[in-house]
Amino acid sequence: MTADDPVSLPILEALAARVEAARRLNPPSSTAILRSIVDAAVALFAAEAASIALLDGRTGRLVFEVAAGAQGQGVVGLSIDPGQGVAGYVYSTGQPIALADVAADARFGRTTAEQTGYVPRSLVAVPLDDDEGTLGVLEVLDKRSGTFDLRDVELAGVFARQATIAIRSTRLERDTASLLRTVLGEAVRSAGTDAVVEAGMDVDAIIATATATLASEADEPLWSLADDIARLRAADPREIELVRELIAVLIRRAERSRGSRSARPR
Length: 266
Fold this sequence. Notes:
By secondary structure, this protein is an alpha+beta fold. The chain has nine helices and six strands, in the order H-H-E-E-E-H-E-H-E-E-H-H-H-H-H. The chain has a single domain (1-217), classed as 2-Layer Sandwich (Beta-Lactamase).
């Protein structure tokens, strides 16, 4: 397989274009975005700390990945069983919870809290979940005035949803890139390593070659449309259905046009 391969590279280019469209419709995130979410939670609730714990698929444990607030940093890197403490309860049940007095609740893990250097008085914890399952838990500790109530649970849920979207987006891009690399690796091996080496190509180089044209197409109308569709998330569902109907009409017209062009004698 070489850069001139008539089969593999066109397929890869099509896949890469779809990955780019998905990335634009669901922009990728990073740990920095999750940090901004816990920063915002601390500011909104005027809280002492906020943190996000995610399930580590390799160890099966909840790991506190990011934290904010004057009392938050001690928890980063700590891991717990997914059924341990308040965070474990929320993760395993999918139920949000607000505690006005954590010391009086049997689910509270004081030993774990002491490991972080800060034992909270009150907290709100909500799951990071969607239709695909639960990813982790967002916790906010100790409002500086008053205790957490049901309204706070709802607000924390908004932050949790944003974190879930960010995490899913990142994993989609990472997993898709990994899949492309795996498939190409198998294709390279089946074609014969010597041929690939002689051509001066490796898997990463093939991917770079196939996706190089995407950067130069940044102003293509299709990408502008993808960006516009991304902004439709805030629209009324009935309006989105109208857009879908309009797009379906345009797709049928484009397919008829393409069919008529291919049918013309050459």
